[in-house]
Prior knowledge:
The chain has 4 helices and no strands. The chain is mainly α. It has a single domain (2-117), classed as Helix Hairpins, CATH 1.10.287.3610. The chain is flat.
Amino acid sequence: MNKIKKHLASYKYSVRGILVAFKGDQNMFFHLIAAIAVVITNCLLKISRTEWLITIILISLALMAELFNTAIEKLADCVTREQDPLIAQVKDIASGAVLIICGGAVVCALIIYLPYIL
């Protein structure tokens, strides 16, 4: 029973981490607004179950990428606040990962939504 309590308690830290990211990073808020817009659009267009699954996976991946990006930025800032070319590259790479998944999500949105709109 003790293992179950420990496991359940670990979710508290996960939720706290998500809340910290939302409070400290304006991009997380932007992604949340985009996710809400996608859900509303899905409801209005009455998309298929498969399309719902695709959009939910893409929303999750985008939020996850932004969480990792935020974690990397916070860790890098903890290492040093001075200009460091290597840390700048690491931050840029993490940011690029977010851009890739969000760009892919936009392409998927076009593929999913255009037939409903046209």
